Structure to design on (977 residues):
């Protein structure tokens, strides 16, 4: 029941808040999100490291005719993502301005999306996974469209939904294929992980699953929905949209694509194609980030680059790489949220998002500059801060698989300081020029960022707190 | 002398009365149908409409109850009237479906007819006649009865399509439907004649026994299958025989369109399953190839054409063409899993599609139907509840979980892949992506900011229809087990357990 509460609580809260007067919506939303975070944290505290199998698992027959079960469970892969999702939901709702039009609908949709994401991370039945995977698109679509920024949010929303659906509907064929071609007629992930069909069928099924996950992550060259969607998304939504939803794709690789299809070899070998694409994403994302003048777009492209590290780690097929990938998912979720918040606050005060139009803001907003430099350093992977550990582990894993992957992947580490420091220096340092910011960061905003920055230090200094629980795996097929 | 003829001579009144229990729901509804005509004749003009509506709803409710009672307490189906009809679970399933549809239609059309100043009692009587035809199709086990049901249903609908006598669109729809429908009926009849020529009987279970795999070399039989298949494809509005659908859907008054879009389709699928899966199991490769072609064409044509539509009725017409393609996947897959998926899908399709039409029906004004995209503008402010429910219907039709549309597709496609039709399923899935584009496009005017503030009133009965449809569209998806089980039991007489 514990895990059911984690997704059902925001879902019920969402339904209630949608019909509430807007005045109470935000604070009720915060209460619901904190309650869900409390339950998730409770699960993390009582989590047994090293246990083989899913913990807190639930299994109820759902559609017995097709042996579909309502199965939930967490293990070392999903635990931290569940916690991250609950945590960032709290931050996102706290960051929502009360003055938003129809704020009750906004909070309700945010909670619904969070519930869907939690379900994706906890489902251990393929159909249930798929149901959550698709269901979370509905709130995401309405959030992007109804609350989006820019001149054509509807277009960005439709593009996002169609892109994602093109992948995920084909994944439905994969889900059915797993049921039919493994010969056991089951959707249970733990069982399916022990039943690998023949390589040619694995190749076909891997292709459809990987396409869905690659679009969601997004992996080069399937990322072209991301700039539009991230540009249109309102900042509070971006916290869970960029911070958590992208991780759902990477999680899918780790939970389904890798363990269920150990030998996806057909016309080509997917075990090599995907990491090569990941390296391409690392470099392409970084280069695109360098080329951007719009701060929000810059951060969006940096996200493509960072997600590349995560996928690279997953497809290193060893413990360092995969644990590094999970760690990096959490890290990236924290950093990208902080970055989007800071960028939004700066552009709010300066009146533009064009980084070349402003300079020397640090003189006017010293505290903002202080926080910004910490987040910048975390994002470019400074040792001692969280991102360093994750990226180092993924590259270490990649090196063990094939040094050339790590070598090219490391180019991303070189390029990250270029775009991050150029952003910081250009905006904050130098002689003040361009628009004059109205004020420094507000106390409430600083308090909102405090837990994120704190976590950057905590995870950076003691990553073992997270990785020690990752040794508990629920299913076969992953490096232990 | 054949055993069948020998039985004729001994057929008694007692047997005839006993056989009546097999078609109890049809008989009940026919009784109410006749009563409704009498009510219409004797009551003063201003009281007719309401009274006939009440009679119709009561009749549908009794038919529903009768079918449900026989489902629970009946001894299973037996052959009645020399194998012309039966009351097996397959028939009962469709009787329940059509009776529910009848109630929904009457509840929706009551306020619509008032608003547009149309004759009310005649309308309900026509709907009752059409439902009787549909039920006959469900319980028919002879080609003759199949044709009887088909014509009863069609003729009632020809009239209903042209119900707005002052509107040329409506007249055009009726004329078009009459001509094309007549063609389709002729095709079906010709095909039946050829099958009869090959098998020597019109009783469907007998045909199954007499025509074995060797008959596939008989051009007479093959031509019969093709002709019947073409006629059936007309009736389910599957491409390339769908040309009439958008025009007729657009011209017919909205409640008729809503009723047809669900009822005709379900009845025609009952007919296809009964005749093809039930009557020609040994010739499956032949009609499966034909239906696979029709299914693939329907999905492609329906989904692509729907994108370009500016009329909601036409959009839903093309969406119906595409949906027919998905359902055909289940028919082709066959077996218990395939047929139960078909029955599940038809049952839930009733709610989501009828609900979508119901929302558009409520937009109608006294001067006519309003079915352009701009008529939905600002619905979120003009009637927020309707906006939410419309979103539910559209997302369900698009196949988003946890709505019924998703689970219907899951069951159909699982059966399809299991039966080896992976290519058809992949095509269906790819075209589903296209379909999301136009279903979601409907929601854009609904939720976009708009200056329109005129309210959209909804009568109590229409609200009931909307809520029931929306609740069913979600609840039967979150917990699909029961309806799927009913679908399995319903499919058993055809597929075997």
């Amino acid at each position: 029941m514990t895990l059911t509460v984690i997704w059902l609580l925001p879902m019920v809260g969402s339904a209630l808040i949608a019909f509430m007067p807007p005045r109470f919506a935000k604070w009720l939303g915060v209460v619901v999100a904190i309650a869900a975070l409390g339950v998730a944290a409770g699960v993390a505290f009582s989590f047994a490291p090293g246990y083989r199998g899913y913990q807190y698992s639930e299994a109820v027959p759902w559609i017995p005719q097709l042996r579909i079960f309502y199965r939930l469970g967490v293990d070392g892969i999903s635990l931290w993502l569940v916690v991250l999702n609950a945590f960032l939901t709290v931050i996102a709702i706290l960051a929502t301005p009360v003055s938003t039009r129809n704020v009750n609908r906004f909070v309700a949709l945010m909670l619904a999306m969070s519930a869907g994401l939690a379900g994706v991370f906890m489902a251990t039945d393929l159909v249930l996974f798929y149901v959550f995977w698709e269901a979370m698109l509905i709130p995401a679509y309405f959030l992007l469209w109804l609350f989006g920024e820019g001149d054509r949010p509807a277009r960005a929303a439709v593009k996002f939904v169609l892109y994602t659906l093109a992948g995920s509907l084909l994944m439905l064929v994969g889900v059915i294929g797993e049921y039919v071609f493994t010969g056991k007629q089951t959707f249970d992930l733990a069982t399916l992980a022990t039943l690998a069909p023949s390589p040619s069928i694995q190749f076909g099924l891997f292709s459809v699953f990987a396409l869905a996950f690659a679009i969601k992550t997004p992996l080069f060259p399937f990322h072209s929905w991301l700039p539009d969607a991230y540009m249109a998304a309102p900042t509070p939504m971006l916290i869970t949209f960029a911070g958590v939803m992208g991780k759902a794709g990477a999680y899918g690789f780790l939970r389904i694509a890798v363990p269920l299809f150990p030998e996806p070899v057909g016309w080509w070998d997917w075990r090599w194609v995907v990491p090569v694409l990941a390296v391409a994403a690392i470099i392409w994302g970084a280069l695109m980030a360098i080329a951007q003048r719009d701060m929000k777009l810059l951060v969006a492209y940096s996200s493509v680059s960072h997600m590349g590290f995560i996928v690279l780690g997953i497809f290193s097929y060893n413990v360092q790489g995969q644990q590094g990938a999970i760690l990096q998912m959490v890290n990236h979720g924290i950093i990208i949220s902080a970055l989007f918040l800071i960028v939004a606050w700066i552009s709010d005060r300066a009146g533009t998002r064009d980084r070349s139009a402003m300079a020397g803001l640090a003189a006017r907003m010293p505290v903002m500059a202080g926080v910004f430099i910490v987040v910048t350093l975390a994002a470019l992977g400074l040792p001692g801060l969280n991102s360093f550990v994750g990226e180092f582990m993924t590259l270490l894993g990649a090196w063990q698989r094939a040094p050339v992957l790590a070598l090219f992947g490391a180019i991303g580490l070189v390029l990250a300081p270029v775009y991050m420091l150029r952003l910081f220096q250009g905006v904050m340092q130098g002689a003040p020029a361009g628009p004059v910011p109205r004020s420094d960061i507000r106390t409430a905003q600083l308090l909102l960022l405090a837990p994120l920055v704190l976590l950057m230090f905590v995870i950076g200094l003691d990553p073992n707190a997270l990785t020690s629980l990752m040794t508990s795996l629920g299913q076969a097929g992953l490096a232990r | 002398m054949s055993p069948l003829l020998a039985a004729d001579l001994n057929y008694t009144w007692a047997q005839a009365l006993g056989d009546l229990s097999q078609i109890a729901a049809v008989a009940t509804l026919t009784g109410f149908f006749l009563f409704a005509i009498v009510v219409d004749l004797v009551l003063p003009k201003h009281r007719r409409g309401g009274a006939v509506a009440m009679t119709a709803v009561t009749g549908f409710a009794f038919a529903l109850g009768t079918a449900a009672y026989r489902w629970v307490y009946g001894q299973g189906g037996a052959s009645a009237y020399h194998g012309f009809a039966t009351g097996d679970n397959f028939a009962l399933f469709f009787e329940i479906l059509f009776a529910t549809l009848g109630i929904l239609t009457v509840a929706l059309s009551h306020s619509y007819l008032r608003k547009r100043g149309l004759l009310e009692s005649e309308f309900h009587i026509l709907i009752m006649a059409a439902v009787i035809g549909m039920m006959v199709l469900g319980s028919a086990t002879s080609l003759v009865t199949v044709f009887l049901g088909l014509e009863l249903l069609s003729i009632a609908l020809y009239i209903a399509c042209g119900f707005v006598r002052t509107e040329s669109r409506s007249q055009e729809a009726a004329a078009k439907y009459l001509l094309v429908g007549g063609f389709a009926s002729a095709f079906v009849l010709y095909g039946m004649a050829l099958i009869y020529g090959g098998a020597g009987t019109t009783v469907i279970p007998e045909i199954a026994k007499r025509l074995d795999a060797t008959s596939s070399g008989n051009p007479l039989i093959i031509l019969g299958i093709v002709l019947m298949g073409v006629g059936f494809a007309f009736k389910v509005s599957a491409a390339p025989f769908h040309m009439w659908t958008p025009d007729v859907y657009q011209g017919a008054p909205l409640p008729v369109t809503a009723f047809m879009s669900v009822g005709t389709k379900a009845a025609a699928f009952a007919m296809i399953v009964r005749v093809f899966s039930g009557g020609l199991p040994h010739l499956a490769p032949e009609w499966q190839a034909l239906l696979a072609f029709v299914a693939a064409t329907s999905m492609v044509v329906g989904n692509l054409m729907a994108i370009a539509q500016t009329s909601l009725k036409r959009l839903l017409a093309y969406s119906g063409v595409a949906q027919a393609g998905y359902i055909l996947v289940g028919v082709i897959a066959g077996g218990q899993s395939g047929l139960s998926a078909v029955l599940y899908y038809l049952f839930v399709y009733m709610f989501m599609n009828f609900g979508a039409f119901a929302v558009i029906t409520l937009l109608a004004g006294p001067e006519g139907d309003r079915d352009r995209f701009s008529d939905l503008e600002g619905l979120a402010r003009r009637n927020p509840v309707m906006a939410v429910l419309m979103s539910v219907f559209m997302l369900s039709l698009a196949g988003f979980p946890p709505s019924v549309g998703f689970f219907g597709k899951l069951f159909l496609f699982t059966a399809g892949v299991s039966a080896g039709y992976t290519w058809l399923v992949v095509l269906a899935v790819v075209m589903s992506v296209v379909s999301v584009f136009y279903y979601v496009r409907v929601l854009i005017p609904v939720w976009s900011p708009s200056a329109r503030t005129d309210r959209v009133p909804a009568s109590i009965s229409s609200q009931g229809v909307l809520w029931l449809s929306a609740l069913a569209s979600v609840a039967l998806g979150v917990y699909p087990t029961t309806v799927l089980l009913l679908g399995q039991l319903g499919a058993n007489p055809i597929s075997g357990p």
